[in-house]
Amino acid sequence: MNVQPKLGIQGPVLGWNDPWNRAGSGRLMRTGTGRMIPPQEPDVAPESYMALLKELGAEFYVHHLFPDLQELPALIEDCRKFGLRLVVGNEYGNINGPWSEGANRYDIPPEALRTLADSGLLEALLLDEPEHLQINAAQYRKNEWFPHWGKLQADSLQEAHGQFVEKVQEGLVPLKAALESKQPVLSEQVFPTLFHAQARAGMTPAPKIMKESFHPLQLGTALGAAKQYDRALWICADLWGPDVGAWPTRLSGFPGHSPTEFASALRLGYHMGPSHLFVENIDGLLLTGEGRKLESTVFGEEWLRFVREYVPAHPLPYNHRQARATVAIVHSDDSNYGQNERPFGIRELPMPEHSQSIFHAWHLATQGAVPAHGSCLHIPGYSFPRHALQFSEPPAEYPLREGVHEEKYGEPIHPLFQPANSVLAFDAYATAEAIGEPELILLAGSYISDDTLAACRRLAEQGAAVIAGSWLLPEELRRPQRWNGGGCWLPVDSLLGEDARELAAPYLGSDKLWRQRFGEHTVRISPADERGFSLHIEIE
Question: Which top-rank group of organisms is this from (predicted)?
């Protein structure tokens, strides 16, 4: 019997002060916007707040700790009283400090972690966007270049990758010691890079959906990392995003997705079979109504329909650990999402051109739907409507209860749908067992380990079609070859070339369908509108 995903909600950052640390809410930035934002609603008493969480169907609560930790005793007691599990995170410390020496990372003190672990309520420790803060180290701590896991010095990406994994392992030692390795440490990520490296170091992948993601890529990468390194999979449905529209808006970009997209994203995340699924943030779900009481917004109504109606009516017959690839992308985890510089946060090390071949692999696997120059919307070619609203004159007065007319600020740019035929991504150290029995394998990135290359060669001999970047191969493997069992080996100078497209075409499926396989089951995902902002989802 499969265990169904646990559902949770992350706390407020704009709507109202933290119920357990109102003073801290007035002293510290709670968002990554770089400025203090006063609360938009009256304070909410802790007991009333916990009752709202229970009414919303939350099984666990995601709370980023204030570095003064003043809220901790009461927070634990209220979670116990109301029967909620607790996930604690480090975002407020990442934004404001104090930082770990030589890094831009806030580490929750071991004694606080032990208190949480001893409470019996702790579900996980969440580290907020560590891949982002490793690569873009000056996001919050601006006085010096201090990458999230520390500075690296390397002459190649393979060397940098090894050093990075070691740095993450070193950083996890005191955290896991305090937790006695009983709770997972989550790598909650906006960028679809370093999932594998951080999973290799011992972290649990927690991809954000919605946000600025291409979803087959984001989820296929996280699913592959979880499968390869035998980790759980958590999913965060993040309401922050690039779009604006006629929906309640607390700030430009929050929510940055329509209620219809949110409803489909919840179902999409659920059908990936994660161990946990949560929404960021609760103040997108609630707004003060008549009588100064918090009431559900249209986003809150969609969440309630999902929790009360959709989930009970659609129990999952599988989980994420059963993910299977029809198309496998095997690549070095080079830390490139399209910025093409600062690999692993090393400013002095050039990003090799071949690191961009991972984008070419996804471009090929999604029949051109994912661009060939990056793996999320934070790349050239995308203009965010939220920026037009952010800098509009006169400035908007938030919250905007009815939102805005999108025509004034630009058409929405973030659909949920791109086609894919059960694509999973593995790193350059994947075993044949992890890769499974895909029909098509694409080899990309800047390097591949000898053992993984040998495993892919054997899979070709056993019937798989393998398209490999020639720069990854020794001389003796740079010749095309076919076997009687139907397998083939095609070295190419570019995954964007006609020969690669021609060989891959029979394995890519319909351009109107995204399939994701789990054991004997297949999730079929198709666009429910012309541009794919909403989805039809079914299991076959």
Answer: Bacteria
Tokens 């939350």 appear where? 58
User: What is the spatial distance between Cα 432 and Cα 65, in angstroms, rounded to a whole number?
Assistant: 41
Cis peptide before 98 (omega within 30 of 0): yes
Distance (Å, whole) CA 260 – CA 79: 31
In single-letter form, the type of residue at position 186 comes to: L
Q: Which helix (H) or strand (E) holds 186?
A: strand 185-189
Sheet holding 465-469, edge to edge: 423-427, 327-331, 440-444, 465-469, 488-492, 481-482
Question: Residue 404 is which amino acid?
Answer: V
Q: Give the DSSP letter string of 35-95.
A: S----SS----HHHHHHHHHHTT-SEEEEEPPTT-TTHHHHHHHHHHHT-EEEEE-HHHHH
Give burial (CB, 10 Å; 0-12/13-18/19+) of 11: buried
SS (H, E, C) 451-501: HHHHHHHHHHHCCCEEEEEHHHCCHHHCCCEECCCCCEEEEECCCCCHHHH
User: In this structure, what DSSP letter does residue 416 have?
Assistant: S
| Residue pointed to by tokens 């059908």 | 271
Q: Does 110 sit behind a cis peptide bond, omega within 30 degrees of 0 on the bond before it?
A: no
**H-state helical runs in 83-204:** 91-96, 110-119, 130-135, 157-179, 195-201
Answer for the pair 250, 15: CB distance below 8 angstroms, yes or no.
Answer: yes
Contact between 317 and 6 (Cβ < 8 Å)? no
Q: Give CA–CA dist 333/194, Å, rounded.
A: 6
Q: What is the dihedral of CA 364, 369, 371, 377, to 10 degrees?
A: -140
Kindly state the DSSP code that residue 2 receives in the 8-state scheme: P
Q: Are the beta carbons of 377 and 240 closer than 8 angstroms?
A: no
Residue that is written with structure tokens 């601006």 in the block? 142
One pLDDT digit (tens) per residue for the chain, 540 residues: 578 999 999 999 999 999 999 999 999 999 999 999 999 999 999 999 999 999 999 999 999 999 999 999 999 999 999 999 999 999 999 999 999 999 999 999 999 999 999 999 999 999 999 999 999 999 999 989 999 999 999 999 999 999 999 999 999 999 999 999 899 999 999 999 999 999 999 999 999 999 999 999 999 999 999 999 999 999 999 999 999 999 999 999 999 999 999 999 999 999 999 999 999 999 999 998 876 789 999 999 999 999 999 999 999 999 999 999 999 999 999 999 999 999 999 999 999 999 999 999 999 999 999 999 999 999 999 999 999 999 987 888 999 999 998 778 999 999 999 999 999 999 999 999 999 999 999 999 999 999 999 999 999 999 999 999 999 999 999 999 999 989 999 999 999 999 999 999 999 999 999 999 999 999 999 999 999 999 999 999
Between the two ends of the chain, the Cα-to-Cα distance in Å is 18
